[in-house]
Design brief:
InterPro entries: Glyas_Bleomycin-R_OHBP_Dase, Glyas_Fos-R_dOase_dom, VOC_core
Protein name: VOC domain-containing protein
Organism: Fodinibius roseus
CATH topology of the largest domain: 2,3-Dihydroxybiphenyl 1,2-Dioxygenase, domain 1
Largest sheet: 4 strands, mixed
Structural class: alpha/beta
Strand order of the largest sheet: 1-4-3-2
CATH class of the largest domain: Alpha Beta
Pfam family, one: Glyoxalase
Distance between the termini: 35 Å
Number of strands: 8
Amino acid sequence: MKTKKIWANLSVKDLERTHGFYTKLGFKPNGKFSKENGLVSFLVGQDEFVVHFFLEENLKPAMGGEIADLENGNEVMFTLSADSREEVDGWAKEVKKAGGTLFSKPQTMQGNKNWYGCGFADPDGHKWNVFYNGK
């Protein structure tokens, strides 16, 4: 079988808050934002990976079970590549200003002096990692 495209579907409690958060971080909207369709969507990175954020009550029936409680666990962590340590530091500052939470401050990672990154969660608890590999 050949896969043409992959995208993510995540649940949120407030579409406007989600739209505002990711817009402030510079994510590229995937279409016009409208609460009526029950989702907000963004294109991420050079390959324009699609991330859909659905209202929780709209996504839950399609999941065939409960939505993860992100206050008590994790679902997945997306990684964004950075071109420098300064870019990682910039992400950390912008995330805080946009209303996100840093769960891992900018730092050298796993004892490798060339790896530098930070981790953050959006207002619904979806986790992201910003990573720089200085080789």
